Amino acid sequence: MKLAYLIESDWAVWWLRQRPEVVTAVKTRERDGLAMSIITLAELYEGIELMKDPAAGRKGLQGFLQLVTVLPVSPRVAERFGKEAARLERLGQRIPDFDLVIGVTALHHGLTLLAEDTHFDRLPGLVRQSLSPS
Q: Whole-model pTM above 0.70?
């Protein structure tokens, strides 16, 4: 399957909450191929467990998982994470570890990252699309 986009946690949460502009943005990109990091999936499960009705959250997540391919953290992604984390540390520009794993997953697979956080822009070569102009 062809993949073009990696959905970051904020977009995934907003899709689950049925935020209209995110639903539209995801649906217009669906035919190009959508992916999500296993890290994002873990973050979503955490949020579901904190909900008043986790069963409803899991049901909504199952629908979302029909739209995306979940990508693992491979040894090559882990290696790239280490290199980028060290580079950013030397520059004093750290990115939270989970976000950095998501960013390097997008880089490794050549995917456009769908995310709002501008700290992803510290990753050379990463293409990021957001809902609002940066």
A: yes
